[in-house]
Amino acid sequence: MSESSYRTDAFHELTYLIIDDFENFRLSLRQMLRSCGAYKIELVGNAGQAIKYCTYNHVDVVLCDYNLGGGKNGQHVLEELRHKNLLKRSSLFLMVTAETSKQMVMGARENQPDGYLTKPINRAMLEQRLITLIEQRKALFPINREIDRENYPEAISLCLQALPRNPRHKTWLLKTLGDLYYRLGDLSHAAKVFDDVLQQRELSWARLGHNRVLLANRSHDQAIASLKQLIENHPDYMEAYDLLADGLRQQGKLSEAQRVLEQATLQSPNALLRQKQLAEVAEANQDIETAADSWRRTVSLGIHSIHDSADHYLALGQSLSDLSEDDDSTQSAEHATEAIAILGTMEKRFADQPTVELRSRIVQCRVLFGQGQHREAGALQSSLRADFDRNPPVDPDTSLDYAKTLFRIGGDAEARDLLARLAEQHSGESDLLQRIEALRDEPVGFRQKLKARKLTRGGIEAFEAGDLAAAAAAFTEALEVVPNHSSVNLNLVQVLLKMYEVDPTNRQLLEQCRARLEHLQGLPEQHRQYRRYMALSQKLKGLNQ
Q: What torsion do the CA atoms of 496, 498, 500, 503 make, to the nearest 10 degrees?
């Protein structure tokens, strides 16, 4: 068979989809494909038609323009096709674009297209680019078919068989083999694949796989040091940032994880899921300004994305609500106005979701109260109480958010009753119970939380330095902000008992301890501070005898 006939046959047996908003370009590209031997070619003019076609038809090769006019672009198409598993691993997706900006390329690369075609395109360029990919597709088809079927052991077996007889695709086979072992939890074999590659040559994907195995084996420090070096050597390698941030989160180093994600979003600003991760980490760090900025970008990026969610709008509204509290500045009023606006947009955009309107009103209530509109907030809270009494939500997040609003508007008793019922209903869910505890301990705005936490850190530092009077003063001041905080109360008790050891004649110290411990009466057994509370209670009881 001649080379020309081979190429014609290679093109002839596949199905193609061309996605472009300009009809002339679609027709021109179709003609080029036909001249290469292709004949099963479908043309569509926008993203919606493309996704619908792929939902009901198998496509071997997708040629998609990045700019598709208004609405979804090529990145959104690829993202949705990957998310919905509408493309098999053996299918090829090529991004066609006249734009070559770093922002576009980085954004598109997040979803792993098989290649790029830069306009203007001629037949020779198209044929040369496609024939290489089609030949690889054919050679690796049996392995990809088994991976699509999630038959990973068979895929591993096929990779091992192919390695000695298919040296041309050795890199792909080794990378796939290591990933398959990792998916199956066979960490020792995965590590051997990656480490064998690294002994021959320093390759980014092998170094990433090596570090993924290290994290799975809980060798955090080693993995984190290696990932930092990988990022320094390859600052555009986004998977390394994600893995490093994950490793730091596993170690509880949330501030450092946030810095890594901030660096990553500067490199690739159009990755919605990474922006969302940054927002969540910033929230955990009480960096509400950064969280709000990241939620804004998440919402903006989600407009045409398959990952669009009411939760993103709600989180932005909540962040803006926090920023608008405890502050009478012009900026606070602007945050409040933006919060109301984004919540209104959420209600319209996700009107078909049952809890959206309820959760929107919960946040609006505390925004209004925080801006001094107490009558409007009171009316809204009355309607919320009626809704909760009539049809309590099954979603704990909604109940938690309502309790937060109740605390903000002075309904402390009602909030604590709600949290007690919620804890009883979900007594086996440790993560939720910790969130309930956190809200009970700090039922205040984020600025007050920051103040209390700063004072608490100062108290701990003073105690460690042996300055008991300064420690007691710092914890006492913190309790003026968060009087029910169990850990801070117990910290103060611990300091006072230490002071009593130094001056046993000062029985007033024991009275102060008793008052602090009585304040914590009713602390539930599942609370993280319960055992400490009981130990200090017993110690005080012994000293009073």
A: -130
**Distances 255 to 170, 243, 271, 283 between C-alpha atoms, Å:** 40, 15, 21, 11
Q: How far is CA 15 from CA 56, 140, 263, 475, in A?
A: 13, 18, 41, 70
DSSP three-state, residue 119: coil
Shared domain for 18 and 99, answered yes or no, is yes
Answer yes or no: is pLDDT of 1 > 60.
no
For 168, which DSSP code?
Answer: G
The Cα–Cα gap between 189 and 195 comes to: 10
Distance CA 179, CA 161 (A): 17
Amino acid at 364: Q
What DSSP letter does each residue of 84-96 carry, written as one string? TT-S-TT-EEEEE
What is the H or E stretch that residue 118 is in? strand 115-118
Let me know if residue 535 belongs to a domain.
Answer: yes
Question: Helices (H), strands (E): how many in the chain?
Answer: 27, 5
Q: Is 499 exposed, middle or buried (0-12, 13-18, 19+ CB in 10 A)?
A: middle
User: Do the domain assignments include residue 233?
Assistant: no
d(CA 309, CA 319): 16
N-to-C CA span, the chain: 101
One-letter identity of residue 136? Q
Residues 6+ apart with CB under 8 A from 268: 103, 106, 107, 109, 110, 238, 274
Quick check: 449 pLDDT over 60?
Answer: yes
Within 409-529, residue ranges assigned H as helices are 412-425, 430-441, 446-464, 468-481, 486-502, 508-519
SS3 114: coil
Cα gap 452→204, rounded to integer Å:
44
Q: How far apart are CA 457 and CA 171, in angstroms?
A: 51
- Residue whose C-alpha is closest to residue 336's, from 387, 375, 372: 372
Number of compact structural domains in the chain: 3
Secondary structure (H, E, C), 191-250? HHHHHHHHHHCCCHHHHHHHHHHHHHCCCHHHHHHHHHHHHHHCCCCHHHHHHHHHHHHH
Query: CA 265 to CA 299: how far, in whole Å?
Result: 15
379-398: b (≥16 Cβ within 10 Å) or e? ebbeebeebbeeeebeebeb
Same domain, 316 and 439: yes
439 and 346 within one domain: yes
Is the pLDDT reported for residue 221 higher than 50? yes
Nearest-angstrom CA–CA distance, 194 and 214: 11
Question: What is the arrangement of strands in the sheet containing 92-97, beginning at the earlier edge strand?
Answer: 40-44, 15-19, 61-65, 92-97, 115-118
pLDDT tens for 298-351 read 999 999 999 999 999 999 999 999 999 866 778 999 999 999 999 999 999 999
Domain with residue 395: its CATH number is 1.25.40
Domain extent, residue 348, equals: 309-443
| Residue that the structure tokens 């704990």 belong to | 396
CA nearest 273: which of 248, 233, 246, 255? 246
Q: What is the mean pLDDT of residues 425-429?
A: 88
- Cα of 32 vs its chain's centroid, Å: 42
